[in-house]
Amino acid sequence: MAKPLYRLQRFLRRTQLFLLFLGVAYIMAGSVLLLQRANLVVTQRGATSPPLSSLPSLPSPPWALRMPPVRVGGYGGRSSQIISRVQGYQPGSLLDDRTGTRWLMSRNLEIRHLRRRWFHSLMTEKDMSQVERSTPRRNVPQKGSYMGCFLDNSKERALRGSVSTDFRKMTSTMCQDTCSVSGYQFAGLEYGSECYCGNHITSLRVRDEECNLDCKGEKGSPCGGVGRLSVFTVEDVLPGQRRYRNVRYRGCFREPENSSSTSLVHVLQPNLTSQSCIEACMNKEFPLAMLRSSDCFCGYATPDFTLHEPAEEEHCSQSNTTEASLPSTLQRFYQVYQTPVQDSRCTERKFLPEKSSSLVALSSFPGAGNTWVRHLIELATGYYTGSYYFDGTLYNRGFKGEKDYWKSGRTICVKTHESGRREIEMYDSVILLIRSPYRSLMAEFNRKCAGHLGYASDHHWKTKEWPEFVGSYASWWASHVLDWLRFGRRVLVVHFEELQTALVPQLRSITSFLNTTVTEDKLLCAESNQDGHFKRSGVRQPTFDPFTPDMRGLIDGLIHAVDQALRDSNHTGLPLEYLPR
């Protein structure tokens, strides 16, 4: 009996020693890690840098940092299947079992930029200045002259001209070039990514240390701070050598009966020419320059002077010859030019002040102009639009609603290309944007091959990828419309081509559908600034017709099917230019 007890005693002693050894090793390892961590913090702060104040506890990152559950859906099927659904198509057969590619996925680099921007928005001004001072700033040569650091806020802008954003590549040179071609004398940068232009600085100067953020695309170059604007003069160029973008002749227009309501500014200039009048109005930050004989006027489009009813050009040519010898009826016509200056009446945007209880979709087939319509809605309403996806390129260029969770209720409407029944029924209403399938297919193929602003080369159009693209995407164009007509609860149909030709009436209809009160001045401002940052320059087309007879036969059949479905749903049919002749 003694022998088994002795063995048990020995076993228990060994176990105690083993457990004691493990405990000591664990404590030593933890101590080493703590020492290393403390040494790293001391090294980063440096001997002369002030200690960082404790940051406030950060909430969970916004939903924009997590990808929403994007349904994977391809859009194949034959045209005969689509056409057969017009008379009485049922859900499930074609649309509910799709497989294909995921649209507009974010990349890791874009997510990191978004996290950094979100983190900065949670820090106080004091925290920001302390963080920036811990990193030595290197001198970067600037293109123009640095004017200093100025106060800036959304209600009282230091520079009240155009606004542009690039959260990845913004530099002081890029901002100065943008302001220069738009006719401005000063360029200001804020938050490291926002560019403001103007001809007059309207706020107070502060200490240069308060502009403590680097440009996103140029480390070491000052790009403002929190509510602070780093202001530069653009590179000096002689007036005759200035290069402006898009000075556009709007036409000949009769002076309104109540000329005082148009708030035109009379500019007195010796030896007046159209160029000198345009430059004078640009210096005064007006988007319109108007000539009448020896007089120059600057102003905006207003409800009494909409520029929607041009007169015969001969009226302006006669009134600009010898005004004194002409009847009074011919002395009241203006030659109107659109200057590169941005209309500043509709540049401010924000999230909805209260969470919306209604979820509105802005739905379209890819390539139908969804980004352009979002731009117009944001200009007219002053509220950001959201997206079912996250496109870092759009977010980096100023569509801040991209980072917001699509069901947050903080955006005026939500972009989507989805068209399954389950996805459609998540929305209370929809603005259904339709564009000619020929143009939509070409626009989306351009985007796939060359990005938002590029064009596919002739080589791309001649590869086998193009016919495969048409074969699968053309039927998706039709099924997308048919699904939303069938399952959408409240549908407003907008045709892209009609929005182009009659922008103000169509945009008024959209804002009314969104239950938003918008002034006529805001609508006219949106029309003036309609191009935005995502308009492809020119109308570059392939040197040959990319659509074969077989492709046209497929697409024309789908056009007839969609046109009939629209009429059966008590909507206006497709524009005549869609229909095959």
Describe the fold and architecture.
By secondary structure, the chain is of the alpha+beta class. The protein is built from 17 helices and 18 strands. The chain has helices at 2-45, 79-84, 108-121, 125-133, 172-181, 274-283, 313-319, 370-381, 392-396, 421-424, 437-450, 458-462, 465-487, 496-501, 503-513, 520-528, 549-568; strands at residues 145-151, 163-165, 186-190, 194-198, 205-206, 214-215, 218-222, 228-233, 248-254, 265-267, 288-292, 295-299, 333-338, 360-364, 386-387, 414-416, 429-434, 491-495. The strands form 4 sheets. It has a 6-stranded antiparallel β-sheet with strand order 2-4-3-8-1-5. Helix 8 packs across helix 16 (520-528) and helix 13 runs parallel beside helix 17. It is globular and about 130 Å long. It comes from Oncorhynchus kisutch (Coho salmon). This is WSC domain containing 1. Residues 143-235, 246-340 form the WSC domain.
Write the layout of secondary structure elements.
Elements: H1 2-45, H2 79-84, H3 108-121, H4 125-133, E1 145-151, E2 163-165, H5 172-181, E3 186-190, E4 194-198, E5 205-206, E6 214-215, E7 218-222, E8 228-233, E9 248-254, E10 265-267, H6 274-283, E11 288-292, E12 295-299, H7 313-319, E13 333-338, E14 360-364, H8 370-381, E15 386-387, H9 392-396, E16 414-416, H10 421-424, E17 429-434, H11 437-450, H12 458-462, H13 465-487, E18 491-495, H14 496-501, H15 503-513, H16 520-528, H17 549-568
Parallel strand pairs: 14-16, 14-17, 15-16, 17-18
Antiparallel strand pairs: 1-5, 1-8, 2-4, 3-4, 3-8, 6-7, 9-13, 10-12, 11-12, 11-13
